[in-house]
């Protein structure tokens, strides 16, 4: 079993760390919230005052942070992890950040003799709690092999996407598909409603026809057809509109940097920006159907 420093015990990080403890790993966590660190301690984990301390005592370091600037600060800043870590330590960043930052941090880690993976996740808080996350992993084969059993304690599907930054690339491409498809599915249900077509009938047809997609069959944006979807809980978030907007903005940044036209992705980002800006940032992203409906 590994001794793991886990930095960032938010809605995703805490249940991930708890699953590592359940798997028998020694976990020492760091977070600004004493409520979250108390929960980790109650689950059998230890608490460190700073990322530097947790990292120094671990042979594996996992981070789950809000954005690229936080990842760069924790890894590259004065007193940061890379500056103070021992050679051979495995670093795993599970944050969703820009590809450029992921590759910059990985290059700095490699120069210090550290193995590093970018391993953003899909599956939301429910997947983090159940240990069924999907990990999209970028980095060397050697680092991936070493990390695989650790990631399996937190997830169900682990995919090595290639070199450093490719995990982030896979995440933002996947979520651009998700954001666009949710808008398309929502528009179809709004149109059906105006045309007098029952939502359940549209679902029964499209879920088994060419309109079938994950946004339709697993996360249907209208109440009824998929009982587990947030639409049945007044769009209480499994994945917030703010988080979807963040990923769509990252995708647009990457597309612009690569000189790739993504008009649907750009329009999806614009619509989610409007939706989140109406005070719905904390609502589930599937609630955009109400924005499209005008309600």
Kindly describe this structure.
There is one protein chain. With 295 residues, the protein is α/β, with parallel strands linked by helices. 52% of the residues lie in helices and 14% in strands. The chain is built from 14 helices and nine strands. Strands 3-2-1-4-5-6 form a six-stranded parallel β-sheet, sandwiched between helices. It has a three-stranded mixed β-sheet with strand order 7-8-9. α8 (141-152) links the parallel β8 and β9. The longest helix is centred in the middle third of the chain and has 29 residues, at 166-194. The chain is globular. The termini are far apart.
Topology:
Layout: E1 3-7, H1 13-22, E2 26-30, H2 34-42, E3 46-47, H3 51-56, E4 60-63, H4 68-76, H5 81-84, E5 90-93, H6 99-111, E6 115-118, E7 121-122, H7 124-130, E8 133-138, H8 141-152, E9 155-162, H9 166-194, H10 199-206, H11 214-217, H12 241-258, H13 263-280, H14 288-293
Parallel strand pairs: 1-2, 1-4, 2-3, 4-5, 5-6, 8-9
Antiparallel strand pairs: 7-8
